[in-house]
Design goal:
By secondary structure, this protein is mainly beta. It is about 15% helix and about 40% strand. A hairpin with a 2-residue loop joins strand 6 and strand 7. The two termini are about 15 Å apart.
Length: about 210
């Protein structure tokens, strides 16, 4: 049954992504296999983040109370297409696709700093993004993959969704990679719903399920 579901998913993704130009052998396409493992609603920092003109920040929350961090594992990476000599991976190019909306890197004025009215500005967003990655990310921010198949990577990345997703019921979200000819395929498992990540948190999956 899972194989049937996978074949249907591949066909659906190729159609949805407008991949009529992709040949049946995927000779020009890098395929990313992923698992959506968690939706996290608050980030606690192991080391408080020092920002200008305020006390160090110990945790952050989405400004919109329905926002969250969608956490993904990059399970396998297929760079075996006949016309692909290598693939440059950059975590900042990962996106969540929901309907016609895409969500990606942290933007200014979308986070609440602790239980205050303070929000992140364009001056401190990079520092906060780095601190969030230190808590959630497990894998390189960028890497060149030569031609080949890379199994069991188990790299973990988070994509910030700053607001509620209409009619979202907690199922696997669709991951996209912007840049180059790529196709991202999820394994279908639903994510865990996690109130807080970081010190004292329940932990987040670090290995893909088969």
């Amino acid at each position: 049954m899972r194989k049937l579901i996978t074949y249907v998913l591949v066909a659906g993704l190729l159609t949805a992504a407008g991949c009529s130009s992709v040949d049946t052998g995927l000779r020009n396409t890098v395929v990313l296999h992923y698992q959506h493992v968690a939706n996290v609603h608050r980030i606690d920092f192991t080391t408080p983040v020092a920002l200008p003109n305020r006390a160090p920040v110990q945790f952050v929350l989405p400004l919109d109370s329905h926002g969250f961090w969608a956490v993904f594992l990059l399970c396998d990476l297929d760079v075996t297409g006949a016309n692909i000599p290598s693939f440059y991976f950059d975590a900042d190019r990962l996106r969540v696709q929901y309907g016609d909306q895409r969500y990606g890197p942290l933007r200014p004025y979308t986070l609440r700093l602790e239980d205050t009215a303070d929000i992140n500005s364009r001056f401190d967003t990079d520092a906060l993004a780095d601190a969030i990655a230190a808590e959630l990310q497990r894998g390189p921010s960028s890497q060149v993959f030569r031609h080949g198949y890379y199994a069991q990577l188990h790299y973990r990345y988070a994509v910030y969704v700053p607001r509620a997703l209409p009619d979202y019921s907690g199922d696997q979200l669709r991951l996209r990679y912007e840049g180059g000819q790529t196709l991202a395929l999820g394994n279908g498992y639903p994510p865990a719903d996690i109130a807080n990540a970081g010190p004292g948190g329940p932990g987040i999956a670090a290995r893909c399920l088969p």
